[in-house]
Amino acid sequence: MFDYMTLRLIWWALLGILLVGFAILDGFDIGVAMLHPFVARDDSQRRVTLNTIGPVWEGNQVWFILGGGAVFAAWPPLYAVSFSGFYLAMLLVLIGFILRPVAIVFRGKRDKPRWREAWDWLFFVSGLVPALIFGVAFGNLLQGVPFHFDQSLRATYEGGLLGLLNPFALLCGLVSVAMLIMQGAAWLGVKSEGDVAVRARRYGAVAAILLVLLISAAGLWTLLGVEGYQIAGAIDHAGPSNPFTKTVTREAGAWFDNYRAYRWMIAAPAAAYAGALIAALAFAFAARRVALLASSLSVAGVATMAGFSMFPFLLPSSSHPSQSLTVWDASSSKATLSLMLVAVIVFLPIVLAYTSWVYYVLRGAVSEAAIRRGDDYYY
Known about the structure:
By secondary structure, the chain is mainly alpha-helical. Helices cover about 70% and strands about 5% of the residues. The protein has helices spanning about 5-40, 45-55, 55-75, 75-85, 85-105, 115-145, 160-165, 165-190, 195-225, 255-260, 265-285, 290-310, 335-360, 370-375; strands spanning about 145-150, 155, 225-230, 245-250, 315, 325. Strands 1-2 form a two-stranded antiparallel ribbon. Helix 1 (about 5-40) runs antiparallel to helix 2. The longest helix is centred in the first third of the chain and has 36 residues, at about 5-40. The chain is globular, with a radius of gyration of 21 Å.
């Protein structure tokens, strides 16, 4: 169907699409969790925020599972190194994901203020921890991760959890937190009414402005203070998946080389900035749907910007740069990529159609008055 080089590019793009889908859809769930204790001041209002995501959060989280499955099937060395090297960080993310449904469901099991307040703050933690860890992970990808392979291609990770929490990575974590708060505020602006929606718009406008400033700071730091990775010499785009067949050099500002070589990639940072600024204005003028669309555009731009900057690298090695994993030497076989692509062509449209139908059926805002009347809301 396609040659090996094209299949590798397609699967790199598909992985990016899955991650963007997760960032946009589950991103507003995470953002709502972080905003929950602040935009809702009483029990009725907090039930409003919970019910804005209650019917959809499980489906949104599937995008994360699909992304992990795509890494496992299409990029086995990447899966092996990242899921073992980032084990403790991933465990924290999973704890956050587990806390979310537990907090949502258990909160209403007892009509005691302290009980519900405790679960409200655990719900907040279930959003803050994944948001921060995801940004920290991308910050470490840009700097490189300490790992290497032996002659049998067995990976050894040489770092630890505390090493991931370096200043640049924490800055990237703040980018992620601001971005997802903006996305959560945009979702609450559409799906809630009254005081909750008003407060969400205020927080969303602040988060959007902070996102612009934080992206600028992270970009400047990347240009001046982070050594990017470059492949020296010729590249065999259809060669075997073997990370030992290349030479990699490091140079300050190298992560910006793709934007010089492929000018169309500038669309990603342009979308990140334009979406955030438009969202800030839309929040200010209560243009709810515009804010959600602009915020989603910004989220897609930020996520895509990371992929464009690093291409063709998937996981750079800071300790053994020439053993870094790239699109050209970390994929499954041609037969595997071809077979899985057929499955994607068949099933991805079904997933998209079903997801669109669910959002159409569940359209409309959750009102505080309906919650107080005792209308049929699950949470």
